[in-house]
Specification:
The chain is mainly alpha-helical. Helix content is 71%, strand content 0%.
Length: 282
């Protein structure tokens, strides 16, 4: 009976839009299919979806830009770290060779740092630009050092604070005193020869990196010793390549710095080995 009554009513157009409002709730199973979505309904649903999406996107952190305070802070921190490392190098160069050896040993730094400090100690005050470049190089070698440890080592050495040095080095008072004489003093002749080699290496290095034609020809035309000229060219190109690399982020900048330092170390070692094989005739 109910079906016979409802069947004619379903054909009425007005019922297709209003039946879900006028009929009682307990007849919902008899209602016609959901009416077709109107433009206004679709627009409403689209707007709601857009609103939800926009809210979701707004919660995603934006990439750092040049105006980002955090990014600017990181760059400023890198500059401060670089200046601090150069200052460490200047302070270390004011100590004796045994004191430098002790500090480098406790700070887990290698022989390359010691040799770089010995070289800058031999450069006279008239070689101002050479000293500046050498201290910048030493600063790069020291950037990975634990800051607090290096500060304490330098301060204790300056103040001759043996108690603090004993704590930092793990040596007793007698051992600490003996440690100051671990490096045997060079004879005057050996020191002069060492100075000559160091000066020659610095001159060669600067000439090759700055593409000085006269010095470049001098190095490659060296007579009396056999050396791999192709390897030397590769090391020079490697330094030039790392110096021309551009860093797009803080992390890449650190990688470029490490690559440049490594390339300079390799070239310096090669030139030092070549120089020591050449007899000092001056």
């Amino acid at each position: 009976m109910t079906q016979q009554v409802l069947r004619p009513l379903r054909r009425l157009p007005w019922l297709h839009h209003n039946a879900f409002v006028t009929l009682p709730l307990h007849h919902h199973h008899l209602l016609p299919p959901e009416p077709t979505k109107t433009a206004s309904t679709s627009h409403y649903r689209f707007s709601l979806g857009t609103l939800v999406s926009s809210r979701r996107i707004s919660n995603v952190p934006l990439p750092a830009t040049d105006s980002d305070p955090e990014a600017k802070k990181s760059r400023n921190q890198l500059k401060r770290d670089a200046k601090r490392a150069v200052k460490w190098g200047m302070e270390l160069a004011s100590f004796s060779a045994p004191q430098i050896k002790r500090i480098l040993r406790v700070a887990s730094l290698d022989q390359v740092v010691f040799e770089a400090l010995m070289l800058v100690k031999r450069l006279g005050p008239d070689v101002r630009e050479g000293r500046r470049r050498q201290f910048n190089y030493i600063g790069k070698l020291l950037r990975e050092v634990e800051p607090e440890l290096m500060d304490r080592l330098i301060r204790a050495t300056k103040d001759s604070d043996h108690k603090e040095l004993q704590v930092l080095t793990g040596l007793g008072s007698d051992d600490l005193e003996a440690d100051d004489y671990l490096v045997e003093p060079e004879s005057e002749e050996d020191e002069e020869e060492s100075n000559w080699h160091d000066s020659q290496v610095t001159r060669w290095f600067d000439g090759l990196i700055n593409k000085d034609l006269e010095i470049t020809n001098e190095v490659y035309s060296t007579q009396g010793v056999e050396f791999d000229r192709q390897e030397l060219r590769k090391l020079v190109r490697r330094v030039h390549f790392t110096q021309e690399m551009k860093a797009a982020s803080e992390e890449e900048e650190k990688k470029v710095e490490i690559a440049t330092t490594g390339a300079k170390k390799a070239l310096t070692r090669f030139l030092r080995g070549l120089s020591k094989r050449i007899p000092n005739e001056y």
